[in-house]
Amino acid sequence: MILRRNLSHPSVPSLRSMITSYAILMIYQRMMSACTFADLLSANGDWDIGKLSTTFTAEAISHIISVKSPDPNDTEDVIIWRWSKRHNFEVSSAYSHIFASPWDDKDQIWDLIWKNMVPQRVCLFLWLTCRQRLMTNSERCRRGLGTSAVCPRCHMADESVLHTLRDCVELKAAWMQLLAPGMREVFFQLDLHSWLRCNLSSHVALPGDDIPWRILFASLLWQLWKNQNDLVFNNLSAPTKSLVNKSLALARYYNEPLKQSSSLVHRVEQNHVWPRPPKCWVTKIIWTPRDANKLADRLAKCVNSHLFDVLTLDEPPDYLQPILAADISALHS
Ligand SMILES: [Zn+2]
């Protein structure tokens, strides 16, 4: 009781205010330890990549060095506080900065994501993509969880969100199969947010199939991300043609309720009855738990995640061998 009374006393700072004070102190210390332009230039005034790499990521450095290095005669090379008018550090402006919400809930992009006619898990994936929260190697490095930001597929660039879903050389072929020639140039030049906004707001439909592009776009994005995860975690990768076919089939499936609701034909309710098989057949339907049929379960998972076309196996694949061996040993025991 004494502890509670003391904590509620006005002279005892609340946890929130202590955390805020600590955050402001950290911001101030970080600002004071920040480097000036002079700390990032070589002796002859050009960008020094070695010095830049101690502070910035490789992606940021490529942007920085594309801009002319600053001329020391232009203006005074000092550290400024951007959130106050006089550019001096002020606690009040730091406080406002900490509690300012970066979230724009009026942005149309949220409607484009959450009202797209795709399953909720795909909407959630699109939302994470838009927020740049996908656990790519770049993001893992940024969070201090990994040491290499390089793409595990092409090993030619950092695995950023855009690279994983659009720019990786091996995945471009998938997009090229679906994009009209007139769309290709712009499609590969937009930044992430503009790219998502442009494609998710599209009213274009795929010729012949009548599938809205915004649905097919989301469907292929989802397949590409799953495929990238299969490469990282299972060392498996589906062919581009298979990914496109599966995305098309799923997009048709997602689009079906839309077509039905927009159809002028009235919906007719019908009871579908399972037809009785001929007398010469005896049919038994038995429910088998997944653990009791690991072979079928493993096959189903493999086919479901990698292949959409019909697959014929001449002999059991390697990943079934341990299960088969276990089944055989159980039969003989
Ligand atoms: Zn790549």
From TrEMBL:
One Pfam family per UniProt: zf-RVT
Boundaries of every Reverse transcriptase zinc-binding domain copy: 89-175
InterPro entries on file: RVT-Znf
Domain of life of the native organism: Eukaryota
Protein name as catalogued: Reverse transcriptase zinc-binding domain-containing protein
